[in-house]
Amino acid sequence: MTDLASRDYSRSRAVLMGTWECEGFSKAPAVERSFTRMRDLLLNPVCGPWPRESVVEIANRPTLGTTCVEVTDALMAATDVAFFYYVGHGIYDHRERLCLTVGDTKIEAPYPAITGLLFETVREAFHHSPATVKIAVLDCCYSGLAAKEFGHLSATRLPPISGTYLLMSSSAFEMSWYELEDTAADAQTCFTKAFVETVREGVGGAPPGLTLDHIYGVVADRLVEDGKPEPHRRIADDAAAWVFAHNNAPASPPEPGTDPDAMFREAYRWETEEGIERLHLIEARYRAAAEAGHTQAMNRLGQIAEGRVQARMQGIEPGPVDGRALLQATYWYTKAAEAGDPVGPMHLGQLYEEQYKDLDRALYWYGLAAQRNNSAAHERLAGLEQRIRLGLVTDGRPGEDEQKDDPGEEEPPDAGQPVGGPQQPGPRPPAGFTVADLTARLLFHQWLDREWNGDQQLAIAQCHNVLITATGGDYGEWSTLKEADQHVLITDFMYRRPPRASVALEARRYYQEIGPGNLRAHAEKLRRGKQ
């Protein structure tokens, strides 16, 4: 939903809470200014705006009083969007639970949880709220504690755009920063200042509607570059796609419906005339054209993914390409090839010959491009065929005797193929790799970033552990499987992209779906591709 002007916020509630005068802490005018700036941001047309009656302010409460009830009532009244923001001093109790302070909150045990607002109380209110989208933004010390254990805000799943987004100014046990009065004329907390300014300025190259993910990326970069703590986030379901604000950046991509040829020509002019600092805008224009079916734009996106465009703009030789960049390039060239373009398959031939070391597939793609009258592909095809005849090159695929027997030695689950395909070592996609397969791989990487901060080994270990537990423990059915069977089941489970917050529940559902006693047969079915 990008038309914020027509969005009805009467069914939504935003609870803004701030504490800048608290026992045991110095008065913090920066907190008060940040509280005011966040309120003014929501009331600004850039965010819709929100009507005043939908915004509940809990400003500098001297004591907890009825705060818990007011927060719960407000979030329970929301049926569309429930938004909670806190800025102030964060502390934690002896159980390492995050406590949001009010004026008389006591730091010493056992008083934090008694005299402050436990974030668990806010989470409970979110859990019972009927809102479709649930967002919490915490600007306080130790805010990362909000993501510990059951860190999601709710397990509710409601289409089409639904889910939860927890945004934290720091990690657990890390301080959040604010500007001092004697160093800044208009001192504010660093996180809220970066957040508000990013929304007001807009994000170059982003769509007309800014999601929290667009905002988070810029805010994180700003803070880290300034030497401040890196913010953290926890996302569930589709909340990352919810539009928070208009994009005020002057060079935002065009609205859907703009002529894709015009978008391509403009992006190509920028590519040839502008500097490397405009690359993100160039890529955004190409992407808009590509998504409208423009095959030349698809090929340019493949060139950007390979690093060739950047190298040309900087006057240097392109470096090696691997990992996700290689997947992105393959994805866009495949899209172009499937749309009938003569250049896309030639680029695919190059990738399969030079990167994947799969000469059979290289010959196929060169041949397809040649059939479409691509003269460069004719030359590459003839040259490769001659080198093969003369024995100057060999196919990079290992033979039967070179296959690895130990699944622990194989590439990680994302490196071989989509679930259900045969396991192969190395990064080369198998024959017949389609756009759908590549999309699954890219979604898998996005899941790793979103749920596991890109830590694939941690994701594998956690998924392995919950599968052991779900299938009967260390001595249950899982223990009867060979390592190869375990590996393919872990891969299958991970490609379902279970939310980290409910990965144990998803593992139990996965086992029930397969059926007790059927793990080995299911692994064999996956291995043979007979799902």
What pattern of helices and strands is seen along the backbone?
EHEHEEEHEHEEHEHEEHHHHHHHHHHHHH
Q: Give the tally of β-strands.
A: 11
Q: What share of residues is helical?
A: 40-55%
- Write down the overall mean pLDDT: 82
Widest beta sheet: strand line-up = 2-1-3-7-8-10
Query: End-to-end distance, in Å?
Result: 36 Å
Q: What can be said about the biggest beta sheet? A: 6 strands, mixed
Low-confidence stretches: 155-161, 397-430
Strand content: 5-15%
Regarding quaternary structure, how should these chains be classified? Answer: single chain
Describe this entry's structure for a reader:
- This protein is of the alpha/beta class.
- The chain is built from 19 helices and eleven strands.
- Strands 2-1-3-7-8-10 form a six-stranded mixed sheet, sandwiched between helices. It has a three-stranded antiparallel sheet with strand order 4-5-6.
- Strand 1, helix 1 and strand 2 form a beta-alpha-beta unit.
- Helix 1 packs parallel to helix 5 and helix 16 crosses helix 17.
- The protein starts with 12 loop residues before the first strand and ends with a helix.
- The relative contact order is 0.06.
- About 8% of the residues have low confidence.
